[in-house]
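Worked example 2:
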Amino acid sequence: MNFNGVYTHNKKILVSRYQTSGEIAGAILKAIKESKETANVLAPYFKSSTKKESCNLIFLFLKKVVPYVKESSDDQTAKTINRILKDASKYGGDCKHYAIFSASLCKALNIPCKLRLISQRFNDTTPNHIYTVAIINGKEVIIDAVLNKFDDEARYNYKYDINI
């Protein structure tokens, strides 16, 4: 894959040392917006015969190129696609970075999507995971490269969807 001209918006945004879920979500939305140009350049590489297969290609790319490395709770970042790719081999990426990458690509491929924030805790509604949900033919298709399988969804007790 040729990434010529891809590194125009090479940003890493430190949300804050003690950030709220809202601050993190806002930074993720900003990174998706700032990734639009790069996503448009990369989109043809992920275009397939079906939208679901395009989503699967995004999932497989993230699994292969961006190793999962969870950020510490006091150093949460949102990164543009350019920065995610630049940092991939040295720092990996976590669920926020996967969500930014996959949502940006879905948007560039004209695949409707939303971000899903979930809490896996029983007594705490504060989200602790995020991923992209593509909407294809009225059905949800999960793109969560933290998990082992494409279109698989993590167990949760609370969820919040952000339409993008």
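The CA atoms of residues 51 and 111 lie 7 Å apart. The helical segments are 21-34, 36-46, 51-65, 81-91, 95-108.
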